[in-house]
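Annex B, item 7. Sequence and structure tokens for protein A, then protein B.
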Amino acid sequence: MTMDDISSSDSCLQERRKKSVIPWTSNDDEKLLNAIKKYGKENWKSVADCIPNKTRKQCRERYYNCLSDGIAKKPWSKEEDQMLMDLQKILGNKWTEMSKSFQGRTPNSLKNRFFSHLHPEYRKKLRENKVNRTPDDKSEKNETKPPKGPSQKSAFVRVKSSKYEIM
């Protein structure tokens, strides 16, 4: 191990120790924006040095997820919520891919909106059976079991996918 490796390792340890769960204040945000003006969006180490108790990663994520120009700070519309639910059904949890369809919404804001507001509603509607099944779904469960035999030792059951439509 060389001296460079040791100093690099010490730097990583200091970075971890410095990281804590201290909420961002408006003063921190102002310091962050001023440091970015001074050092740019590529030099996060110098930017983080200007803000006590914040790491490079925390500074970068705070800027790109909350403070960057073009981020929508307006309330979510019903149309956006519906589009998010529809895209999540199609794409799964590919938030970056979904964000291309939204003006001013970051992948992180989509994920947070889905799991904090929409996902619980979706689960509640499923529990209350307020979900319409598509006409091609004939039964409550469309299951077929794999053939039993020595060559088929899978513990999984094959399930035909069902399509749901929320009212």
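Protein B:
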Amino acid sequence: MNWCKILTVEVPLFLQIINILFLFTGRNTNPMTFRYNKIFTPDLNTWVYISLCFVLGLIGIYYRNFNIALYYSSPLFLLFGLIFCNQIFKTIFNRNIIIATRWDFKSAKINVFDRIFGFLIVIAPFLMPIIYQQIIK
């Protein structure tokens, strides 16, 4: 069993997929109840989650010489992107960002900017380690 491959390939990708599925699901199909909304009003569980993402992010950046180990930092990129885009939406629209897929209940407040920024928030954590690795080389 190749532990190096498991720890640098399978584990980071698995953690990133679970992270995105956890954040962008809720108790029903209404995007206003999804778990990512709790990040905007943090409680103790949210701070533990943010701390875990920060620790994994530091591990990923420290072991950046492994190409795929940078995916440990993907949850950190996801959190920063989510908080940054939410601040933009609070400034412009005076509300939190709404990230919804086509299967979710569409709020009347959702617009094209929500869809564009939502797509960027979801895809950026997968692309940032690749971009970061290219910049470091």
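Comment on protein B: Residues 112-136 form the longest helix (25 residues).
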